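Tokens as discussed.
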């Protein structure tokens, strides 16, 4: 277990050798520092994501006390109110109801209609990068593209969009392992400010509906059932956060991987038809979300080990995506990999509702960079963010 240390910068820089050691140790491993059971194998992660004996929450069945857990501090309440009413952290029947209603607004046609906007914006952002002779791929392309797209989709005015990324970053800090009090304080403040902003936006859309997702969420109904005000706010925050955090990190992680594998980058530059498979392989190769948690609602046995009710399981997506039982030579970047059942978008009822949009955004920015910046090169080696769960870079400086 010494190799698995999510607070060690060396581990965060390259966790994949430690994952290989974990897979060799077994199918489920107790990890005391976070009071979790680690699951490193692809088959187990894939199966557990679909297993209804596990849940993103337990509060639909148990109180904190009945489940043997300590309630969160009262001062964290704004974060938990916001987080716990989003469908990612709910279980049926609430999850089923909210996802069904959200799906009425977040339709494939809605996503398809955004394609010209996504490609146009990607070209504009890359064009500005080229004109400047280079810059930070993170702040110049990777961040503004998905933030603008999901904000456009929700109907958030352009003048208000600069607030979104800082709010999101502060809230997502709570998803790291054992977050500090400072992290919690920032998350609570961001939760309050973000909620107040969206409450005002929803009120404005009630008076003057538009052709946007917030208006669609207000109108969505099924047999007389509608989203509550809090569910709309939490859904909008979830779509904003999940709608760009993973895409931002997948973009910079992906290009950093390409720069470290010049043969694969050359093949991609020679054949742009590889972009779809490249997007999938880069998400597998350096997974933007490394760990996903589930509560054990009923005792579950994994390879002879009983994980008891009340325990927490940590499914290691990054390890599953490098499991040699599923992926041939997993440590090799192969943009032509045909059989690629990566789980970067999760699975089961919590499969990422925004996966089609994320794929469009990643393909659009990659295509624009290949076409308009064919000599793109790394200016200096980037620094990893200290985060383990949400994996990304501090920046990615490039030149032409």
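Sequence:
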């Amino acid at each position: 277990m010494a190799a698995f240390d999510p607070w060690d910068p060396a581990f965060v820089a390259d966790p994949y050798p430690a994952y290989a050691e974990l897979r060799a140790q077994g199918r489920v491993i107790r990890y005391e520092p976070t009071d979790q059971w680690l699951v490193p194998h692809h088959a187990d992660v894939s199966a557990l994501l679909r297993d209804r004996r596990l849940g993103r929450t337990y509060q639909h069945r148990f109180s904190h006390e009945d489940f043997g857990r300590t309630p969160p501090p009262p001062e964290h309440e704004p974060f938990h109110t916001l987080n716990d009413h989003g469908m990612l952290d709910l279980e049926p029947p609430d999850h089923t109801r909210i996802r069904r209603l959200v799906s009425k607004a977040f339709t494939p046609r809605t996503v398809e209609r955004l394609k010209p906007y996504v490609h146009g914006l990607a070209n504009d952002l890359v064009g500005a990068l080229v004109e400047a002779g280079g810059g930070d791929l993170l702040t110049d392309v990777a961040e503004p593209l998905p933030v603008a797209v999901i904000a456009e989709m929700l109907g958030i005015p352009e003048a208000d969009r600069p607030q979104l990324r800082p709010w999101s970053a502060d809230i997502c800090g709570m998803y790291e392992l054992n977050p500090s009090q400072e992290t919690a304080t920032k998350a609570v403040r961001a939760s309050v400010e973000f909620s107040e902003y969206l409450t005002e936006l929803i009120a404005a859309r009630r008076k003057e509906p538009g052709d946007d997702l917030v208006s669609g969420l207000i109108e969505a109904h099924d047999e007389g059932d509608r989203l509550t005000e809090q569910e709309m706010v939490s859904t909008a925050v979830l779509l904003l956060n999940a709608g760009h955090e993973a895409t931002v990190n997948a973009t910079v992680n992906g290009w950093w991987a390409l720069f470290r594998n010049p043969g694969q980058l050359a093949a991609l530059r020679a054949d742009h038809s590889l972009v779809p498979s490249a997007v999938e392989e880069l998400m597998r190769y350096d997974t933007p979300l490394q760990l996903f948690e589930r509560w054990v609602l009923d005792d579950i046995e994994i390879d002879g080990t009983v994980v008891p009710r009340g325990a927490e399981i940590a499914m290691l997506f990054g390890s599953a995506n490098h499991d040699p039982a599923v992926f041939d030579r997993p440590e090799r970047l192969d943009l032509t990999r045909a059989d690629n059942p990566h789980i970067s978008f999760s699975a089961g009822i919590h499969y990422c509702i925004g996966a089609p949009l994320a794929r469009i955004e990643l393909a659009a920015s990659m295509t624009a960079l290949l076409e308009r910046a064919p000599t793109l090169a790394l200016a200096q080696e980037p620094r990893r963010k200290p985060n383990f769960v949400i994996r990304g870079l501090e920046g990615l400086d490039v030149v032409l």
